[in-house]
């Protein structure tokens, strides 16, 4: 048997270069398998991600800019960004996050949010912007939030709510505007909120004047259909300071109608909405999709007719220069009817009281007259009895 001869240049063991080559390939294969088997393990570096509840918690991390949103686990439902140092956000900060249902941006320093910031968040149901520095709100800020049910804008510096900013929030049920700088609100801005059930308006410097009259009517309609509104205390005028506007009689706003007549017949609403004295919008353009229209008691007066075609367009879209028609809720019409009926009843009661007083006076005078005549007849009746007794005495003496 010939002796075993080793191959030239080695001892029969793998070389060092071959070992390194195999090790690198094995590591690459294992890394690839790990990425395929555990795709949900990705999470933005400063955040905590829960695979069970699909919650991404980035709160109280001292962040001044958003973490990389592309590292969010697929299918995340809640993104918590509260108690950080965000001062501004880009227009595409929340792009392609359609799976989110909750977004919390409370307790930051946000002072201006770009239009369409939440455009891609069609499944969002809860948005919290509590305790920021918002002073103005873009009309298109909430565009795309068709599923939103809860919106918290409390403790900011908002002084107005733009008309049209809530047109897409038809599923909103809870809204807080407490702790802002609101002096008055436009009723037209809240009419699309057909499913609203809870509204917070406290801690605002409300001016209970003609600018708040129409919103008071809308608030009465909300209360009539079972909604809840917290106290709305007046700051001005002085004679209403501290009073809840819900308890202020609507008759105290009658002077507003006189002012409108003096200023050109109801031009106040158009002036406030920035439309001047333009033609009214068609009813089909004012009623949001899915909402049930409410009949109006004005019967077309004051530019409330739905058959107007001037500037309304044949497709049901309102013209850009039209003014929103005045809306009187059912509760106000019933309140007016109650006042009329109460006035009639009070009038009837007053007439009955006058009649009863007259009857009492006549009866008292007749009784007094009867008593006087009775007193005059008593002496005459006494003389007649005395003569009768004398006659009887004389007859007895004659018989004797």
From TrEMBL:
Keyword set, alphabetical order: Cell membrane, Disulfide bond, Ion channel, Ion transport, Leucine-rich repeat, Membrane, Repeat, Signal, Transmembrane, Transmembrane helix, Transport
Keyword Transmembrane (UniProt): yes
Residues in the signal sequence: 1-42
Gly residues composition bias: residue spans: 266-279, 299-317
Localization of this protein: Cell membrane; Membrane
Transmembrane segments: 335-368
InterPro entries found in the cross-reference section: Cys-rich_flank_reg_C, Leu-rich_rpt, Leu-rich_rpt_typical-subtyp, LRR_dom_sf
Domain LRRCT span(s) in chain numbering: 204-257
Statement: the UniProt record of this protein carries the keyword Flavoprotein: no
Highest taxon, organism lineage: Eukaryota
Membrane protein topology class: Single-pass membrane protein; Single-pass type I membrane protein
One Gene Ontology cellular component annotation held by this UniProt entry: plasma membrane
BP GO terms, sorted: axonogenesis; positive regulation of synapse assembly; potassium ion transmembrane transport
Region spans: Disordered: 266-323, 380-400
Compositional bias ranges of the Basic and acidic residues kind: 391-400
Similarity section: Belongs to the SLITRK family.
UniProt-recorded name of the protein: Leucine rich repeats and transmembrane domains 2
Organism whose genome encodes this protein: Poecilia formosa
């Amino acid at each position: 048997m010939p002796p075993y001869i080793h191959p030239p240049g080695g001892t029969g063991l793998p070389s060092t270069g071959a070992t390194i080559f195999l090790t690198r390939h094995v590591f690459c294969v294992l890394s690839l398998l790990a990425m395929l088997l555990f795709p949900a393990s990705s999470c933005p570096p400063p955040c905590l991600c829960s695979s069970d509840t699909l919650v991404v918690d980035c709160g109280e991390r001292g962040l001044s800019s958003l973490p990389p949103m592309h590292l969010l686990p697929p299918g995340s439902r809640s993104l918590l960004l509260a108690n950080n140092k965000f001062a501004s956000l880009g227009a595409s900060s929340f792009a392609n996050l359609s799976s989110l249902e909750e977004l919390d941006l409370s307790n930051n320093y946000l002072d201006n949010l770009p239009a369409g910031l939440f455009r891609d968040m069609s499944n969002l149901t809860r948005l919290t912007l509590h305790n920021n520095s918002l002073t103005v709100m873009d009309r298109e800020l909430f565009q795309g939030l068709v599923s939103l049910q809860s919106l918290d804008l409390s403790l900011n510096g908002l002084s107005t709510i733009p008309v049209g900013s809530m047109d897409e929030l038809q599923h909103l049920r809870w809204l807080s505007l407490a702790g802002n700088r609101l002096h008055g609100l436009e009723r037209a801005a809240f009419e699309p909120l057909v499913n609203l059930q809870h509204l917070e308006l406290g801690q605002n410097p409300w001016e209970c004047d003609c600018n708040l009259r129409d919103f008071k009517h809308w608030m009465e309609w909300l209360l009539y259909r079972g909604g809840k509104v917290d106290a709305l205390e007046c700051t001005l005028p002085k004679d209403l300071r501290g009073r809840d506007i819900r308890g202020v009689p609507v008759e105290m706003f009658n002077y507003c109608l006189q002012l409108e007549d003096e200023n050109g017949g109801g031009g106040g609403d158009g002036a406030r909405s920035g439309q001047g004295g333009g033609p009214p919008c068609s009813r089909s353009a004012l009623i949001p999709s899915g909402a049930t229209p409410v009949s109006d008691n004005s019967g077309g007066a004051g530019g409330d007719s739905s058959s107007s075609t001037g500037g309304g367009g044949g497709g049901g879209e309102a013209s850009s220069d039209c003014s929103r028609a005045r809306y009187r809720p059912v509760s106000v019409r019933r309140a007016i009817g109650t006042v009329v009926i109460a006035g009639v009843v009070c009038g009837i009661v007053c007439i009955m009281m006058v009649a009863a007083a007259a009857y009492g006076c006549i009866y008292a005078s007749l009784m007094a007259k009867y008593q006087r005549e009775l007193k005059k007849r008593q002496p005459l009746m006494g003389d007649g009895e005395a003569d009768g007794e004398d006659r009887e005495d004389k007859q007895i003496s004659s018989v004797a």
